[in-house]
Specification:
It contains 21 helices and 11 strands. It is α/β, with parallel strands linked by helices and about 550 residues long. The protein folds into 2 domains: about 325 residues, no CATH class; about 100 residues, no CATH class. The strands form 4 sheets. The protein has a 4-stranded parallel beta sheet, with helices on both faces. A 3-stranded parallel beta sheet has the order 9-10-11. A two-stranded antiparallel ribbon has the order 2-3. Helix 6 links the parallel strand 5 and strand 6. Helix 16 packs across helix 17 and helix 20 packs parallel to helix 21. The chain is globular and about 80 Å long.
């Protein structure tokens, strides 16, 4: 990094001084009528001028207009090389989805528009001041995205394309709020795991494991470099990004079997094309967001969340989506009731062995819903963006070629049985899969608290199925101090049996930042072979902050 002299900053090549002062402008004529000039707002007419000015064929400007909203980040060359980096792989490739969707809109004789509001990376901001902007960003982005929709008054519908922790919930809030418009959600998919290495969740604990001598510097460098097996998509574990994709599909906002598709692959871009086709079809049939995002859809999303073992952050995002849609917000009692009756059926990272791409190949959301339908846990009359009810969608999925071929692909490619990734209730029970979330009440949290039940090591659960913990409380008021104690192998460090208590970090304290680096470090250490760190499987955390997995 070098300082630049003043002359190099202010002087330019003389050739740049040849400034053109006028140009011919686009050829052709706007498709104006006398009625438009007399009756329509001047903005509608000037919009056509702008459209021609940007280079679109004036003869096509009378076509129905559809808006694509994306959370794109970075500048990517046509061959995939980075010109300027984005914040994360989740938004790196979704411009390709927008291109595929735009091409389909053109093929449908429509006029595509695109607008963007990029998103941050919760992994990149872990333990930094940037995390204080994470949750606030969701609301800010939802406002910006809604304003972008309203700022194109001539749009007939909206296609939302997003992938990750806050951009995707913001996009769902936006689409849910567009009650009078047709909307479709296109999830940005997942990145592949490395052929030989660690997923993007576990790799976030390399600092703690290095501190305890579980990794050498060279191992940390190697694992950290190749945790992302492919350049696009959300992380390979069922954290907030992947769970948001699942919930979006369960709400009926995405076409069936859209969530968790591997980024950059033909099946992923095909989904974008079909989603654009679905948006045009919804507009032709007069089906709007008000018919899709209903109380029944919210309940279905909660049930699917529990069956997947989804991120606890969706306990914040799902009520926000309901609120944006003008619906009743789920309460703690609602979530508790769902998690008491819905079995967890999916065994994916970070609590199981399988990356999210395997959940996709095993059948994804519709496969889980088949099991839930047999248990009578779904409201099958809910309408989806396919234009059909959930019942019709599941009937199609059960006998579809897509289902058969992809499940067989999982067997051949990874040697994994689909039934070991997405299980029926009997197999899940036999494998020891617990319910997803528990909501204890007590003197510390009289209005309720959240425990990610799937994160409890079965070895510490008592014979009666109840987890009990008594141990010394190690109290911290700063995340920085807590992570330092986790990394400390000496007498002052967190030890097996300790209860790490991080206080004053909630909404009225520090802003309720996410502390994945704290919750991931003991778990990763506990599963590292051959050594176990002092913060092994019986070190627990109680906090007023957020945790994702």
């Amino acid at each position: 990094m070098n300082a630049t002299g003043f002359q190099a900053l202010v002087e330019s090549d003389r050739g740049t001084f040849e400034v053109q002062t006028a140009a011919a402008g686009p050829a052709g004529r706007l498709p104006l009528t006398a009625e438009m000039l007399l009756e329509r707002p001047s903005g509608d007419v000037f919009g056509l001028t702008q459209n021609a000015g940007m280079g679109w064929d004036p003869r096509e400007l009378g076509r129905p207009q559809f808006l694509m909203l994306g959370t794109n980040g970075g500048l990517r060359a046509a061959d995939g090389r980075p010109i300027a980096l984005g914040y994360h792989t989740g938004h790196w490739e979704i411009g390709l989805l927008m291109q595929a969707a735009a091409a389909e809109l053109v093929a449908q004789e429509c006029l595509p528009f695109a607008a963007f509001c990029s998103d941050p990376c919760d992994g990149r901001t872990q333990g930094t001041v940037g995390m204080m902007d994470s949750l606030a960003y969701r609301n800010d982005a939802a406002i910006v995205l809604r304003r972008l929709v309203r700022s194109l008054p001539t749009r007939r519908g909206v296609l939302g394309i997003a992938t990750c922790d806050k951009g995707l919930p913001a996009m769902m809030m936006t689409l849910a709020a567009m009650r009078a418009l047709p909307v479709v959600l296109v999830p940005g998919g997942v990145t592949l795991p490395p052929t030989n290495g660690e997923d993007a969740g576990k790799v976030q604990s390399i600092g703690a494991r290095f501190a305890h001598g579980e990794l050498t510097l060279e191992q940390a460098q190697d694992l950290g470099c190749r945790a992302c097996g492919s350049p696009g998509g959300g992380c390979q574990f069922l954290g907030t990004a992947a769970t948001s994709q699942v919930v979006g599909e369960a709400l009926g906002l995405s076409l069936p079997h859209s969530a968790l598709a591997p980024s950059g692959q033909p099946i992923w871009t095909d989904m974008a094309r079909r989603s654009a086709r679905a948006l045009v079809s919804l507009a032709a049939r007069g089906i709007t967001a008000a018919s899709i995002v209903t109380d029944a859809a919210i309940r279905n999303a909660m049930v699917v969340h529990a069956a997947f073992g989804g991120s606890t952050n969706l306990l914040l995002h799902t009520p926000a989506i309901a609120h944006a849609a003008g619906l009743r917000r789920p309460t703690v009692e609602d979530w508790s009731a769902v998690n008491r009756r819905v079995p967890r059926l999916v065994d994916t990272l970070p609590n199981g062995p399988h990356p999210t791409v395997r959940a996709f190949l095993a059948g994804g959301v519709p496969e889980v819903m088949l099991h839930l339908r047999r248990l009578g846990l779904l409201e099958e009359s809910a309408l989806t963006v396919s234009g059909e009810t959930l019942s019709r969608v599941l009937d199609w999925w059960e006998g579809s070629e897509r289902r058969h071929v992809l499940r067989e692909r999982l067997r051949r490619a990874d040697g994994v049985a689909p039934e070991d990734v997405i299980m029926d209730p009997e197999r899940a029970r036999a494998r020891g899969l617990t319910s997803t979330v528990t909501f204890p009440r007590g003197n510390l949290a009289p209005e309720g608290s959240v425990i990610k039940s799937t994160a409890i090591d079965p070895s510490v659960v008592d014979a009666d199925g109840i987890y009990r913990k008594t141990g010394p409380a190690r109290v911290f008021v700063r995340e920085k101090d807590a992570i330092a104690a986790i990394k400390n192998p000496g007498p002052g460090g967190i030890k097996s049996g300790d209860v790490l208590v991080l206080i004053c970090r909630g909404p009225l304290g520090a802003g309720m930042e996410e502390i994945y680096q704290i919750t991931a470090a003991p778990r990763a250490s506990a599963t590292s072979a051959p050594r176990r760190s002092p913060a092994g499987p019986s070190a627990r955390c109680a906090t007023a902050t957020r945790f994702a997995s």
